[in-house]
Write a structure and sequence with these properties.
By secondary structure, the protein is of the alpha/beta class. Helices cover 33% and strands 25% of the residues. The chain contains twelve helices and 15 strands. It has helices at 12-15, 42-49, 107-111, 115-127, 144-155, 167-176, 189-196, 212-217, 242-248, 258-263, 265-280, 297-306, and strands spanning 2-6, 16-20, 30-39, 65-70, 75-78, 90-94, 99-100, 135-139, 159-164, 180-183, 202-207, 221-229, 251-254, 288-293, 312-316. Strands 3, 4, 5, 6, 7, 14 and 15 form a seven-stranded mixed beta sheet that branches. A six-stranded parallel beta sheet has the order 10-9-8-11-12-13, with helices on both faces. The chain has a two-stranded antiparallel ribbon with strand order 1-2. α8 (212-217) links the parallel β11 and β12. α4 crosses α5 (144-155) and α4 (115-127) packs across α11 (265-280). The longest helix has 16 residues, at 265-280.
Length: 322
């Protein structure tokens, strides 16, 4: 079978190599899956660079979430077992962790429903306790993780303010349902949020960016607001001023969604059931900006790494259009 392999750490476009390799063999409690669609996530870029919290042995295949088909014909979502990730024609995954692919979504959309939307749902509901009528500020609102948070925020009855970089991404954020869009390149985020909220600030901030985004967020957070730390796509990890959190009465809340797979897998399945219902109702639908063939995967991962993509880019190993 064909699979993308990383033999040394570096930029995805430089270190990902498409190779012929043996089809993986499933072990106890695992199943073999034919990959229909593999969604690209920012952690795939970090894996290539050797900067992710998990560092699989070299060589490895990146690709942390897929939609695939079991040998008995079930269409499922899975997180393949590294070092044999999803940018391949076949993968193995733990049977107990498989989730049924929603009928309302095609293969590419289903592949993108898993990690990003689970992260959004757990972050907004379990960690930040977002309430209807509150104001949610979402950084990188036109990106894969941010677009999921925008849709989930609107589904929860929040007023959603999206922060983006550039007019193209601003248009996408508006189409996703943002009540207000701020272009960080030309507008003052802090002033715009305060003006939109009558000086109160945002109740919940969804921050997958870190760096300057975090610094701006704590300057426009509301009384008893919650800053949800999801990731550091900027490459800069903030150093919170805890004295500032104390005097302004806000919370800094972390989210590592992967821990729920081991600490509370029943909650992951319950979340998937809720996401499936929302997808069936048309309330949420992953924004797929590109569906690329297997041969273009390395270049696509690099675009995600560089922050030039919008929504989700999905790799289709079979070369199809689903």
């Amino acid at each position: 079978m064909q699979a993308w392999r990383v033999h040394r750490n570096g930029e995805p476009s430089e270190v990902m190599e498409l190779e012929e390799t043996d089809r993986p063999t499933s072990g106890d409690g695992q199943v073999l899956l034919e990959v229909r669609a593999a969604n690209i996530n920012f952690p795939d870029a970090l894996l290539c660079r050797g900067q992710y919290q998990v560092r699989p042995p070299l060589p490895f295949t990146p690709g942390v979430e897929i939609c695939g088909v079991t040998e008995d014909g079930r269409r499922v979502l899975a997180t393949p077992a590294l070092p044999e990730g999803g940018f391949a024609e076949y993968v193995v995954a733990d049977e107990a962790a498989l989730l049924p692919a929603p009928d309302a979504l095609d293969d590419a959309e289903a592949a993108a429903l898993h990690i990003g939307y689970q992260t959004g749902w757990f972050g907004l509901h379990r960690r930040a306790h977002l309430q209807a009528g509150e104001t949610l500020l979402v950084h990188a609102a036109a990106g894969g993780v941010g677009s999921a948070a925008v849709q989930l925020g609107k589904a929860a009855g929040a007023t959603v303010i999206g922060v983006v970089g550039g007019p193209e991404k601003a248009t996408i954020a508006r189409e996703l349902g943002c009540d207000l869009v701020i272009d960080r390149r030309t507008e003052d985020i802090v002033a715009a949020v305060k003006e939109a909220t009558g000086g109160r600030g945002a109740d919940v901030v969804y921050d997958p960016v870190g760096g300057d985004a975090y610094a701006k967020s704590v300057k426009c957070i509301a009384f008893e607001g919650r800053v949800l730390v999801v990731g550091f796509a900027s490459g800069s990890i903030p150093t919170p001023g805890l004295n500032h959190a104390l005097v302004k009465n806000y919370s800094i809340v972390g989210l590592h969604w992967g821990l729920y797979n081991t600490k509370d897998p029943a909650a992951v399945r319950a979340c998937h059931d809720e996401l499936t219902k929302l997808a069936a109702q048309g309330v949420i639908k992953p924004l797929i900006s590109e569906r690329v063939p297997m041969a273009d995967a390395a270049r696509a991962v690099q675009r995600v790494a560089d922050g030039t993509s919008t929504g989700r880019i999905v790799v289709l190993p079979s070369g199809g259009t689903r």
